[in-house]
Design goal:
By secondary structure, this protein is an all-alpha fold. Helix content is 77%, strand content 0%.
Length: 273
């Protein structure tokens, strides 16, 4: 019988603990004597879960303190978020009789939840689109490396123009590669892991290889190599850009929902009093 790897074993344990906590919550919810008691229970559970979810941001702000690794705090954030989603489903329902404030709260809370789910899915799926690359480059350093590629390609293109002034096909291919070096391109293709931007450049160079002498082939191969490095940078930047966009959207939506949540609690307890 095959054994689970340590990574999958850890996931199974955390998933089991999350499921057990939610099962306990459902049991207590069923045993509650009234609807108001049920909503009071799930409301305070959601409030506690929200505090834990926000603690990830606090931990990152206090990164100098020995509070554990970011990985474990992120895992806590993910599984508490999944538990909170279940508690939210139990907490209550909105109807057409609900006022504008309640609909605003409903939309903001669920937008925050769904954006969090997208962040989780992005963290699982997006890295797979760049798994064929030798190394990962920090997002902030990608423009710097792209500029280095552009400088190297400019030097090679000038060398090609001086070497093969009479070979129009060769120069056009080199110009086609050089023209695409200055900015990120094919963002959507890179996000879905499509190799077309790499293949198009390789096929274009291969189509004229038989017309070139050895010196021209060497120059064009070097130009292609630098260009493919630039395309790889584009791919990594596209994936990291999308993931950062999902993270920022989740944070903005969550912060936007905080004030309506606090007002919701105050209004509920004002009516109870």
């Amino acid at each position: 019988m095959a054994q689970l790897s340590p990574r999958w074993r850890a996931r199974a344990i955390k998933s089991g603990l999350t499921a057990a906590a939610f099962a306990l919550l459902v049991l207590l919810w069923k045993l509650a004597p009234s609807l108001s008691a049920q909503r009071n229970l799930t409301g305070w559970v959601l409030a506690g879960a929200l505090v834990l979810l926000l603690s990830l941001r606090l931990k990152r702000l206090l990164r100098l303190l020995p509070l554990g690794s970011n990985y474990h705090w992120t895992q806590l954030h993910v599984y508490v978020g999944i538990f909170a989603l279940g508690a939210l489903l139990l907490h209550g329902e909105f109807s057409s009789r609900s006022g504008p404030f309640w609909w605003l709260l409903f939309l903001l809370v669920w937008a925050s939840v769904l954006s969090g789910v997208l962040v989780i899915l992005g963290a699982r799926w997006l890295p797979r689109t760049t798994r064929n690359f030798d190394s990962n480059v920090l997002y902030e350093k990608i423009p710097q490396y792209r500029a280095l590629c552009a400088d190297r390609m400019a030097a090679l293109y000038q060398q090609i123009a001086d070497t093969a002034k009479s070979d129009l096909v060769f120069r056009q291919t080199a110009g086609w590669l050089f023209a695409k070096v200055n900015a990120r391109q094919h963002t959507l293709l890179h996000i879905v892991g499509n190799r077309l931007p790499f293949q198009a450049a390789e096929q274009r160079v291969e189509s004229i290889r038989r017309y070139l002498n050895q010196t021209e082939q060497d120059l064009l191969d070097e130009l292609l190599s630098v260009y493919l490095q630039k395309v790889e940078l584009d791919a990594q930047e596209s994936v990291q850009w999308l993931y950062r966009l999902l993270l920022v959207s989740h944070r903005v939506l969550t912060v936007s929902a905080l004030l309506p949540i606090v007002l919701h609690v105050l209004v509920i307890y004002a009516y109870l009093d």
